[in-house]
């Protein structure tokens, strides 16, 4: 995982781009970030702190995971990118 500086820099660039587009379009778009449920729990504080500092409008939390526990590997859709 990246360090806090990386994330702060990343969100700062996104919010700057959004502001520049807003100036051109006359419309401020919502900036929402979707967090993966597979994040290392130790990384969450740094990511959320940088989201708050950069005034990201929304955080989307989801239960979709890329992990494939053995229990579901036999499922007919287990090999699909988004299933089962």
How would the blueprint of this fold be written?
Elements lengths: L3 H22 L6 E4 L8 H10 L4 E4 L23
Parallel strand pairs: 1-2
Helix pairs in contact: 1-2
Overview of the molecule:
This protein is an alpha+beta fold and 84 residues long. The chain has one domain (4-72). 38% of the residues lie in helices and 10% in strands. The longest helix is centred in the first third of the chain and has 22 residues, at 4-25. 5% of the residues are buried. The model has no long low-confidence stretch (mean pLDDT 79).
Q: What percentage of amino acids are in beta strands?
A: 5-15%
Largest pleated sheet: 2 strands, parallel
Oligomer: single chain
Radius of gyration: 17 Å
Total number of domains: 1
Overall 3D shape? elongated
- Residues in helices, as a percent range: 25-40%
- Class by helix and strand content? alpha+beta
The averaged pLDDT comes out at 79
Task: Give the termini distance in whole angstroms.
Answer: 27 Å
The low-confidence parts are none
Brief summary of the model shown:
It contains two helices and two strands, in the order H-E-H-E. By secondary structure, it is of the alpha+beta class. 5% of the residues are buried.
């Amino acid at each position: 995982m990246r360090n806090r500086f990386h994330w702060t820099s990343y969100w700062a660039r996104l919010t700057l781009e959004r502001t520049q587009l807003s100036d051109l379009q006359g419309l401020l778009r919502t900036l929402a970030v979707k967090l993966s449920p597979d994040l290392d729990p130790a990384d969450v504080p740094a990511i959320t702190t940088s989201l708050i500092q950069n005034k990201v409008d929304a955080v989307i939390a989801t239960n979709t995971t890329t992990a494939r526990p053995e229990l579901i590997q036999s499922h007919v859709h287990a090999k699909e990118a988004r299933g089962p």
